[in-house]
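Field guide to reading this record: the first block holds the primary sequence, the second block holds the structure written as discrete tokens, and the final block holds curator observations. Each block starts with its own label. This record concerns Arsenical resistance operon trans-acting repressor ArsD, catalogued under organism Alkaliphilus metalliredigens.

BLOCK 1 — SEQUENCE
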Amino acid sequence: MKIEIYDPPMCCSSGICGPSVDDTLIKLNEDIELLKKEYPDASVERYMITQQPLKFRENEAVFKMVKEKGKEILPITTVNGKIIKYSGYATYEEIQTHL
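BLOCK 2 — STRUCTURE
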């Protein structure tokens, strides 16, 4: 199974750097580590639109949504290529329901 997170533009790949760290991103990183621990066969990948724009094109549904609604729709989370949440990061529990 593959979990992919399509991030908005950020300062770095994790978004948890600098003097004022977003608590949402800290929780996201904790959830990703928990997913990797609980589901060792799962692949979790994050893509940032400014650094990996081709990844956004590879998923047709993600590309279409960003093209129609703009970058404001980010972040988008997919499980096995299917969008499970947009305009906010999916929680561990939300992702778990799709595994």
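BLOCK 3 — OBSERVATIONS
The first strand starts at residue 2 and ends at 7.
The CA atoms of residues 51 and 77 lie 17 Å apart.
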